[in-house]
Amino acid sequence: MNDNTLPTANAEAWRAQVQYHQDRAEQEKALARRSQSDAGRAAHLLLSENHLQLAASAELVADMPDAEPPKSSSLQHTGWLMRESYGDAT
């Protein structure tokens, strides 16, 4: 086995992202089943679908030979949510 067939650290990191998003999709489906409102159920199902799409994208990137490592967008997303929630309160 040569170096080209060994998984890279970046590919492994992307595969971990695949697993994370698949797990989160299942969690959201379970929350949808337990939801007591139509709006809650719909929101959880949309989040589940979003995680499945992210998992599919991560799978594609994991197979790229020159993939960059994944980056967390949590802080960026939190900042966006705060800006949307509070607008130009400054």
Folded structure, characterized:
The protein has one domain. It is built from three helices and no strands. By secondary structure, the chain is mostly helical. The chain has helices at 9-34, 38-62, 74-86. 71% of the residues lie in helices and 0% in strands. α1 (9-34) packs antiparallel against α2 (38-62). The radius of gyration is 17 Å and the shape is flat.
What are the key terms here?
90 residues; mainly alpha; 3 helices
Q: Tally of extended strands?
A: 0
Shape: flat
Roughly how many Å apart are the termini?
59 Å
The radius of gyration is 17 Å
- Multimeric organization: single chain
Mean pLDDT: 85
> Which residues sit in consecutive blocks of at least 5 with pLDDT less than 50?
none
Taking the sheet with the most strands, its summary is: none
When the domains are counted, the total is: 1
Structural class: mainly alpha
How many alpha or pi helices? Answer: 3
Strand content: under 5%
The SSE string, one letter per element, is: HHH
Helix content: over 70%
Put the structure in a nutshell:
With 90 residues, the protein is mainly alpha-helical.
Q: How does the SSE layout of this entry go?
A:
Layout: H1 9-34, H2 38-62, H3 74-86
Helix pairs in contact: 1-2
